[in-house]
Write a structure and sequence with these properties.
Length: 76
């Protein structure tokens, strides 16, 4: 849980440093807004994602968009 919270905070902070709203970042990165909400740690997002592994490609794409090395952030 701690690892996921750290990742979410890092992603959100990087987006905010770029001065982008969540919706702007989703559009620019080409990621559905609900998935971005999940990646940034929002709890009450209604999305039909049954397995968090489904989000990994979106995580990698978003991390690259905000300038973060995704591979260093993913847990083993």
């Amino acid at each position: 849980m701690f690892e996921r919270n750290r990742i979410a905070e890092t992603l959100r902070s990087a987006r905010e440093k770029r001065g982008l709203s969540l919706e702007q970042a989703a559009a620019a990165a080409g990621i559905p807004t609900p998935y971005l909400r999940l990646l940034e740690g929002e709890a009450d997002v209604k999305v039909g994602v049954s397995d968090e592994l489904y989000l990994i490609p979106f995580f990698r794409k978003y991390a690259a968009f905000v300038g973060i090395d995704a591979e260093q952030m993913l847990p083993e």
